[in-house]
């Protein structure tokens, strides 16, 4: 529920000049204004909700939310430094050098009653006793539908947040800026070395959903959490686009997305080797669980996809031995 962008330039240009290992994102709390339209998933999210609390640095803890200043987060990191996030992803281990520049963004937990009620009540329902004891996820402990509605109503006349109204589409195009001659001023995209395909501006206008009907198939496996299910058509579409030789998902849990990948591979008859890696034990942030989660997944997965897919119960580091490249 966090959307971030670099002010007035593309992510490529912003990150390309950074010498530090961490970039912070300054995220404002946004709410639906009384004049806002309903959310449209086909449009960029940030311009749809630009009203909210402009006091980014407030240290006042709210009744069911942390203080605004907690949402100035070190959440963009250099992968090669293997930086570890602490539970909640508001802090990182150690003290790596942070850039003096920041991304700008919006925290969408309360961006619209249509999503706030469903998501927050879902999170309240799955808070573990261990997390309660450690006060992890405390903002959901006592939340109710009425409290969510009341908070949204209090913010119907919030001001425009200028930093968010500066958003432009260049902020979502992770491409070098184009020079006067129309050629890229940056280096070739590393994507060309990995998959042999480079995205070009304008390609999106050629996209025809009817040519990729795999993503219109109903998924064979679903779990009760709607927020985990909504990306399944896109998972199937990715398989159709990329037609990978090997597919690995790190963090499978209930297997909604992983089984969607496998279903697409089977339907398209691709011959892709698939691997799902997870300890199937949980973690301190999402809570722990027993062997029944993996058993339920395997009962669905093995008869349908066992000929080309493997569930590997291990940590990510331990699983590396399965992949020589």
From TrEMBL:
<dbReference type="Pfam" id="PF13578">
    <property type="entry name" value="Methyltransf_24"/>
</dbReference>
<dbReference type="GO" id="GO:0016740">
    <property type="term" value="F:transferase activity"/>
</dbReference>
<dbReference type="InterPro" id="IPR029063">
    <property type="entry name" value="SAM-dependent_MTases_sf"/>
</dbReference>
<keyword id="KW-0808">Transferase</keyword>
<protein>
    <submittedName>
        <fullName>Glycosyl transferase family 2</fullName>
    </submittedName>
</protein>
């Amino acid at each position: 529920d966090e959307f971030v962008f670099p002010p007035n330039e593309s992510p490529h240009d912003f990150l390309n000049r950074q010498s530090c290992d961490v970039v912070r994102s300054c995220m404002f709390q946004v709410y639906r204004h009384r004049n806002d339209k309903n959310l449209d998933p086909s449009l960029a999210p940030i311009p749809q909700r630009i009203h909210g609390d402009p006091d980014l640095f407030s240290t006042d803890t709210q009744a069911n939310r942390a203080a605004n200043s907690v949402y100035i987060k070190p959440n963009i990191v250099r992968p090669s430094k293997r930086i570890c996030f602490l539970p909640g992803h508001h802090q990182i281990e150690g003290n790596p050098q942070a850039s003096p520049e920041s991304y700008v963004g919006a925290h969408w937990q309360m961006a619209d009653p249509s999503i706030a009620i469903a998501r927050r009540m879902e999170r309240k329902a799955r808070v573990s006793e261990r997390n309660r004891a450690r006060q992890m996820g405390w903002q959901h402990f006592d939340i109710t539908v009425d409290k969510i509605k009341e908070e949204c109503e209090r913010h119907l006349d919030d001001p425009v947040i200028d930093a968010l109204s500066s958003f432009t589409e260049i902020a979502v195009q992770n491409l070098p800026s184009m020079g006067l001659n129309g050629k890229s001023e940056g280096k070739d995209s590393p994507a060309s070395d990995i998959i042999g395909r480079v995205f070009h501006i304008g390609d999106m206008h050629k996209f025809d959903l009817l040519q990729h009907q795999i993503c219109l198939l109903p998924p064979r496996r679903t779990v009760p959490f709607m927020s985990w299910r909504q990306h399944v058509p896109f998972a199937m579409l990715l398989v159709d686009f990329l037609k990978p030789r090997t597919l690995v998902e790190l963090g499978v849990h209930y297997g909604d997305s992983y089984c969607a990948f496998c279903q697409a591979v089977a339907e398209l008859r691709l011959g892709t080797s698939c691997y799902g890696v997870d300890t199937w034990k949980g973690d301190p942030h999402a809570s722990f669980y027993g062997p029944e989660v993996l058993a339920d997944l395997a009962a669905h997965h093995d008869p349908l996809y066992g000929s080309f897919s493997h569930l590997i119960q291990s940590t990510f580091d331990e699983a590396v031995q399965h992949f020589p490249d």
